# Entry
Amino acid sequence: QLEAERAAALAKYQKVAAALTTARQKAAAKYGSEVSAIVRQLGMANAQLVVAVEPTDSERPRAHGADEVRFGFSANPGQPPRALAKVASGGELSRVSLAIQVVGAADSGAPTMIFDEVDAGIGGGVADIVGEKLKALGARRQVLCVTHLAQVAVHGAQHLGIRKEVKNAQTFTRVLPLAKDARTLEIARMLGGQEITVATQALARDLLKRSA
# Structure
């Protein structure tokens, strides 16, 4: 009797797991396509994210179904997608992560997200798009972003200046909130280097105004 109950339970599991596999395979193609489209907007014109739904080696029933879900990534044409964590650089991984969060923002995601050097290897118009995507993501949750590009920084709702100081042979990091004028000066410094001119301040004010 126990064997019969076990067989019935296993058959039910297999039926439900098969339905879940079909749903995952259908969603995977759409999800990979949507993420790839955003990643390409972020400066990787040939990037491709592939979501692979593969059967597990285990014959035992599992709470999450009978599949392993893996993210494959290729940044260059002619290269097949490989495990995202192994082939993506730090900057690429940050941008793929941003694209993943943007696609899934309406449904789920952590309440606070941190993006470090998401602007690595980009500039100009692409940097502005990255800033816009981060701003859109910040409308739903708290987003912290470390950046060296003014085009990204101007989209932030709050700016913090980070400085390193050496006192008594010890290094300290100071993080200070930037008010309106200090914010403009910091954006101007990011645009023009250590020498802040009237022209760079005017450009900083213009960027901040257009991103508001």
Q: What stands out?
A: The longest strand covers residues 48-55.
